[in-house]
Design brief:
Shape: globular
Helix content: 25-40%
Number of domains: 2
CATH architecture of the largest domain: 3-Layer(aba) Sandwich
Largest sheet: 6 strands, mixed
CATH class of the largest domain: Alpha Beta
CATH topology of the largest domain: Rossmann fold
Pfam families: ABC_tran (PF00005)
Organism: Candidatus Litorirhabdus singularis
Mean pLDDT: 89
GO molecular function: ATP binding
Number of helices: 11
InterPro entries: AAA+_ATPase, ABC_transporter-like_ATP-bd, ABC_transporter-like_CS, ABC_transporter_ATP-bind, NO3_transporter_ATP-bd-like, P-loop_NTPase
Bound molecules: adenosine-5'-triphosphate, magnesium ion
CATH superfamily of the largest domain: P-loop containing nucleotide triphosphate hydrolases
Subcellular location: Cell membrane
Length: 296
């Protein structure tokens, strides 16, 4: 693996507001190798999307910067495709045309018409959306729109795939299918991935490293957890695996003990509740997913 393929160094950002400027991120340093799969995890509002947008070139850091393969990132580019937290399809284009737009941008002059069609259909099949090629975004469900957004990004074969809670809005079966597809694609193509997630199991299953962020304002990287699990990874086998469960406990401990949800802290302070570490032995279904409602 090439060290320092993607180098995020000294990144901080301040947003202007009506009152004092709001400092969202501070002193973020992360070196990512080519082909590495990184998950970003942290409570709602800590600055995960902001950091991803800086890497995408959509937002400018106030301090520090991002270097990809020796070149400074200062604008968006097809080498860094983004799956947004909320889908971002062109509403006047069909499912097929939305993917086609991206494919044309990247493969113009490299693939002929037939090859482009085959490639677009291949990527839509991957996310099980081949049945809806002629539909407009308004005619499909939210989860389906998200799947088209994922197909569009995969079809661009970007050097770096930036995914903001890509599977958050999907049902459990589709989510599992897409997680497995993403692992297969990444093993084959070797793209570098940064994915934001609130799902602890998802982070452990997919990642080489999990980057855990502290609560904002002035959020930064709290801990980086290396996931020492062999690939290919099998979700069923790992469910019983001691290493897997140890890693997941480490993430839960960071989120619920070391970086307690700021909203919970505020509520507890208002109620005069004594500060103590929360029990980590809550039922798995509720603890596993740091849901938006809980985190917001
Ligand atoms: N353009 C902006 N102007 C002012 N404040 C902003 C702006 N964009 C983001 N923020 C603030 O920066 C902080 C980080 O926001 P961000 O969207 O990055 O959080 P997040 O970690 O992605 O949250 P979530 O998990 O809910 O998606 C928040 O407090 C947010 O209100
Ligand atoms: Mg976000």
């Amino acid at each position: 693996m090439q060290e320092n393929y993607l180098d995020i160094s000294g990144v901080g950002i301040e947003f202007p507001t009506d009152e004092a400027p709001f400092r969202a991120l501070q002193d973020i340093n992360l070196k990512i190798s080519r082909g590495e799969f990184i998950s970003l995890i942290g409570h709602s509002g800590c600055g995960k999307s902001t950091l991803l947008n800086i890497v995408a070139g959509l937002e400018n850091a106030t301090e520090g910067g991002v270097i990809l393969e020796g070149k400074e990132v200062d604008e968006p580019g097809p080498d860094r495709a983004v799956v947004f937290q909320h889908h971002a399809l062109m509403p006047w284009l069909t499912v097929y045309e939305n993917v086609e737009l991206a494919v044309r941008q990247v493969f113009k002059g490299k693939k002929n018409r037939a090859e482009m069609r085959e490639w677009i259909e291949h990527n839509l099949r991957l996310v099980h959306m081949e049945h809806a090629v002629g539909k407009l975004p308004a005619e499909i469900s939210g989860g389906m729109k998200q799947r088209v957004g994922i197909a569009r990004c995969l079809a661009m074969q970007p050097k770096v795939l930036l995914m903001d809670e890509p599977f958050g809005a999907l049902d459990a079966l589709t989510r599992a299918h897409l997680q497995d597809s993403l692992m297969d694609i990444q093993a084959e193509v070797g793209n570098t991935v940064i994915m934001i997630t609130h799902d602890v199991d998802e982070a452990v299953l997919l990642s080489d490293r999990i980057v855990m962020m502290t609560n904002g304002p002035a959020a930064t990287i709290g801990e980086v957890l290396k996931i020492e699990l062999e690939r290919p990874r099998d979700r069923l086998a790992l469910a019983e695996d001691a290493g897997f469960n140890h890693h997941r406990q480490q993430v839960l401990n960071f989120l619920y003990a070391k970086q307690k949800n700021p909203e919970t802290l505020k509520q507890e302070a208002a109620l005069g509740v004594a500060q103590e570490s929360p029990a980590l032995a809550t039922p798995r279904a509720t603890e596993n997913k740091l849901s938006s409602e809980q985190a917001a």
